[in-house]
Write a structure and sequence with these properties.
Length: 88
């Protein structure tokens, strides 16, 4: 089992975490003008690049979202940090 570092709670089992989205992915706006196809693409289509990736994850136990940097090929995590504006 892999272990991830929550910036708020420390090292925990991977089962306590859930992938949210790629970091830097912009939500389509204005909401009232977004088509169903645009919304579906935002929710379900990811670049899924091979190698280093910055992603937003949520620690289900504490409910905090944070940034994780990991290698998508080796699954090695090289860092995690609170989202901007959130103190860890």
């Amino acid at each position: 089992m892999q272990r991830f570092q929550c910036p708020f709670c420390g090292l925990r089992d991977e089962t306590e975490f859930h992938f949210a989205t790629e970091a830097g992915k912009s939500r389509p706006e204005p909401a009232e003008e977004v088509t169903d196809a645009e919304w579906a693409a935002y929710l379900h289509l990811n670049d899924a690049l091979k190698g280093q990736a910055r992603e937003v994850w949520v620690h289900l136990t504490c409910g905090e979202y944070f940034l994780m940097t990991r290698d998508t090929l080796t699954r090695e995590v090289s860092g995690s940090e609170a989202l901007p504006g959130r103190a860890s």
